[in-house]
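Our preliminary data section would be incomplete without showing what the modeling component actually yields. Below, a chain of 72 amino acids is followed by its predicted structure, encoded as tokens that our downstream tools consume directly.
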Amino acid sequence: MLNRPQPRTCIECGLPYGHGDFAYHAGKAENGPSYWSDRGLLCSVVCSTAHYERREKAGEAMKAPAPNPLER
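Predicted structure:
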């Protein structure tokens, strides 16, 4: 069976949402993630920057801020 990423993991490194190293708004998991894109959650400023740079190089940069994926 194919191993699919879980919907609440960092799309760059795979760190699961809820992990102690995941960055949360105001430092609290109940406030939601600090970083995300239209493609999913990002666990840290490092992964957010890497994601942005990768998309920029590929010509797929976001045109507008993405809505919070946990508020859908």
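The first strand starts at residue 35 and ends at 37. The radius of gyration is 12 Å. Preliminary results of this kind motivate Aim 1 of the renewal.
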